Amino acid sequence: MACFNLMAVFTGHPLYSCRKCRNPVALGDDLLSKSFKAKSGAAYMFSHAMNIVVGAKEDRELITGHFTIANIFCSKCGEEMGWTYVRAYDLRQKYKEGNYILEKAKIMKEY
């Protein structure tokens, strides 16, 4: 597992935190899309995430195709937050590689 603890300079823009422990996990400026689905319902795609632990890679069949993904966890409380796309096998889905999906039910927006 890899752990990413990054200090961010907060400039008054919104950030997204773990709902369980309020650890910052993503910046509002990195939000790419609000139209994703996860186990708990709605999910957001971000270009970057911080203060997360990346789990083992695994191949998974998702709604839009076959991917290699890795689950991501809050580095402070261990809550499963979503996943990151490691590899997309469909050329039309390659834009997802390297991006992070955070489940809306697991995060809160803060200013």
UniProtKB/TrEMBL annotation:
Entry keyword annotation includes Mitochondrion: no
Keywords: Metal-binding, Zinc
Yippee domain mapped to chain residues: 14-111
One MF annotation (Gene Ontology) recorded for this entry: metal ion binding
The keyword Methyltransferase belongs to this UniProt entry's keyword annotation: no
PANTHER family found in the cross-reference section: PROTEIN YIPPEE-LIKE CG15309-RELATED (PTHR13848)
Family membership noted in the UniProt record: Belongs to the yippee family.
Protein name: Protein yippee-like
